[in-house]
Write a structure and sequence with these properties.
This protein is of the alpha/beta class. 46% of the residues lie in helices and 14% in strands. The protein contains 13 helices and 12 strands. The longest helix has 28 residues. The protein is globular and about 65 Å long.
Length: 366
């Protein structure tokens, strides 16, 4: 399959679908890209930016596509499968981008589309959504799960894998079952735990909101993903119940063990609990992409004097470094600075930190 002469259809042009389409347009500028979405504004924007070659008003218009990417919510993707079954040709590759595979694979089996289907899941995320947040390098240098159906031809799997590599992703091939177990542990369960920590503190809050003020430092950092869309997570957890429940039970066992260690004053096991966690966390690479997206933050002390905050921000701006956001915390836990500067990428954060250090600001490493 010649990647320079492909016809590719996208059903859904949100953050992920839009980013993959933009990436294809950047790498293979002559590709014909068709777009279908209920969001007419997203389609119009994609066409005006020349990401799309054409807007289509029906799935049937994708009958000649070499690839069809299912990038809508899972229940919509499943609803489109009977139409796709009626128009898909033998050489076409059908794929999706969902973070849970069980439901889509049940539907693929029901509609006898296994010979065409190769599930996919780019390990990327963002605090933003929609086509206007899409980025032609979002999947670059990101792991991309490839989950072939049992009967799809190996040549199709290889063609899909090569396309992903051409787009700069790192394809990793797993079964759908393995994929759902892995994502449960590295994404779904952490989101539940983060939200449970927030709810734990919220339940102890007083009428003055003092816990909220005191939690503005490290607590807010470790629970950042609790700000995720609750509707999305309702659907994800109910789509992957077996793996999520199994992991939460194991987590519950960990907590019960710690309760026992504290009650019995078992200092050695308390130490080991934190030591093993520290060692494993320190071995996790600092990839800029993933299902839980990284922050690029710099923390620094600001002297209590007029214009001090504005001066620090001006230093960064005058150096041509693009700031994403700023924040102020009054919590000094974990050596956090009063001022938090957030950047769009790690290089910008490093450059800003070195600049501010050279100007004698106290910078806190994280």
């Amino acid at each position: 399959m010649n990647n320079n002469q492909l016809c590719i259809g996208f059903i859904g042009l949100g953050l992920i679908g839009g980013s993959i389409a933009k990436s294809i347009r950047r790498v293979f500028p002559d590709t014909e890209i068709l777009g279908f979405d209920v969001d007419q504004q997203a389609l119009s924007l994609a066409l005006s930016e020349k990401t799309l070659t054409k807007i289509v008003t029906s799935i049937e218009a994708m009958k000649d596509c070499d690839y069809i990417f299912l990038c809508a919510p899972v229940h919509y993707n499943i609803a489109y499968l009977p139409i796709i079954k009626g128009i898909i040709h033998n050489d076409c590759i059908l794929t999706d981008v969902g973070s849970v595979k069980s439901d889509i694979y049940k539907a693929i089996h029901e509609y006898h589309l296994e010979d065409y289907f190769i599930g996919g899941h780019p390990m990327v995320g963002s605090e933003r959504s929609g086509f206007d947040a899409a980025n032609d390098r979002l999947i670059e240098n990101a792991y991309y799960f490839v989950t072939p159906s049992a009967t799809v031809d190996n040549d199709k799997v290889e063609n899909f894998r090569m396309l992903l590599e051409d787009l700069g992703s790192i394809p990793i091939v797993y079964s759908p079952e393995e994929h759902d177990e892995i994502t449960a542990y590295i994404s779904h369960i952490p989101h539940v735990i983060a939200s449970s920590l927030v709810n734990l503190v919220a339940d102890k809050e007083d009428e003055n909101g003092i816990l909220k003020q005191l939690a503005a430092g490290g607590f807010k950092d470790i629970t950042r993903i609790a700000s995720s869309n609750p509707v999305v997570w309702e659907h994800i957890l109910l789509s992957n119940p077996k793996n999520v429940v199994s992991g939460l039970r194991k987590f519950n066992d960990e907590i019960n063990d710690m309760i026992t260690y504290i009650e019995t004053e078992d200092a050695r096991n308390i130490y080991n609990f934190f030591d093993t966690a520290k060692d494993y966390r320190n071995s996790v690479p600092d990839h800029p992409t993933g299902v839980i997206r990284m922050n690029y933050d710099v923390y620094l002390d600001i002297p209590d004097e007029p214009n001090a905050l504005a001066t620090a921000v001006s230093h960064v701006g005058n150096a041509g470094i693009n700031l994403k956001n700023i924040g102020i915390t009054h919590n000094r836990e974990d050596n956090e600075g009063v001022l938090r500067l957030s950047f769009y990428d790690n290089d910008s954060a490093i450059t800003a930190a070195e600049l501010l250090k050279s100007l004698n600001y106290q910078i806190y490493e994280r």
